[in-house]
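User: Fold this; C-alpha cells only.

Assistant: Input:
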Amino acid sequence: MARPNRGEPPPIRITTASAGARADIASRQKRYIITMGVRTLCFAVVACLAIWHVGPGWLPWIFVVGAVFLPYIAVVMANASSTKSDGFELLDGSSQDKQLPPGTDSE
C-alpha cells in the first residue's frame, strides 16, 4: 500500500475490509515481541533485585507478577485479530429493494 505524501490528506477508505494477512501477521508478531521483551526485562529486574538483596517489599513482587503473567497476555494479544472500522455504521435501509431498478437506454 502506498503512503500518501506529507501534507496530503490520507485517502478515504471506502471499505471495511481488513488489511492483508501479511500485515496482520506482522502486527501480531510485533505485539508479541514487545510483550515478551517486557517479560525478559521483568526477569532481569527480579534477578538484579535478588542479587542486591532487596529486602521484603512490594517492588520485587511487581516484576515477579509481570514475569509470570506476561506470557499469557502476549499469547492472547498475538492471537487477537485486528478488526477495521471506519467509524461509519452500515444502517439497514427502509427499502426492501435488493437491486437497482432497470435503467432506460437513452443514449
